[in-house]
């Protein structure tokens, strides 16, 4: 199967002070259509710009000779008369704008300018600073960017936290052989708005095909491969390395968005947490859940007790295609029902949330500080409004069956993913 969007390379280039200054001049000229610059004034402007901007540039600013600057402007389409004076007569404005954008000038001196369009065959075509690329740009880790002509800046109040449900039992704080580590079946990216004390949850399919880290027997990287996202955890060490590889892989799916931290929990926490809140009530919406438990009749409302919570969350028929995808709706249903239940308890007892984490601390691993994950939980539970469907988003894309390996594959629609990331973690300027 052809893989259209591999792991992109970071193409951010730092704007040179003189290029920024020249870009401002060119932009003003485009607006007024009445500028003429001779070599002498251009040279003086370059020198002045270098001196003025030296304080803002690490190291010694680069000084571009007048001749080279003239060549650049001529390449952009500006005219030069017989005396060497640079002018605008006969200038192709579109060509000029594209040129200075490709140099990172019109976008603020090095701010990436990304364009994305879908070809007739459905493949995405990306252009970064005027240069077409066959790979998906990994530029959403930038503080600022242009995307299809819209100016975005990273909303620093919105943090990105990765939560993983790993399909093995016991502690995640001990090393295990790669054959015993397990996969991350539940993948949730929590966007925490620290200013508004609210969370938004992005569900990411386990079978998402993306670039992941491949390791040796010591869980040290030996390369990368396009594989199922769920396997990124497996190539680690069951805790720290697994967490890092999972964060790297999810960041790749999201175009290079920085992940601020992660928490992973083993299977054991499902029933522990469910029993901790006295059971969670759900309505059975699937036809095939009776095979997991006789009480799971479609249409029935069930108060999940004992091991029923794990059955409800994890059950799927592996002989049927794409059941990992359809199971995600049950993940969402259970998270909302659990949130409603623990919200009621937390209003009566402020120790409920800290006690919840104390109960499962042996079955989780995280690189967050305790205060951080307690704050995330508080924002989800005590925001004044229970979680609902509007607090969740899914990735769109295409489900395919790899018949050679007998595995399901999910190939994201990165045009939708890009916009989801921008809408969630950035703000328009």
Automatic annotation (TrEMBL):
The chain crosses the membrane at residues 18-37. It comes from the Bacteria. Pfam families: LytR_cpsA_psr (PF03816). Coiled coil: none annotated. Keywords: Membrane, Transmembrane, Transmembrane helix. The keyword Secreted does not apply. PANTHER family: POLYISOPRENYL-TEICHOIC ACID--PEPTIDOGLYCAN TEICHOIC ACID TRANSFERASE TAGU. Belongs to the LytR/CpsA/Psr (LCP) family. This is Transcriptional attenuator, LytR family. It comes from [Clostridium] aminophilum.
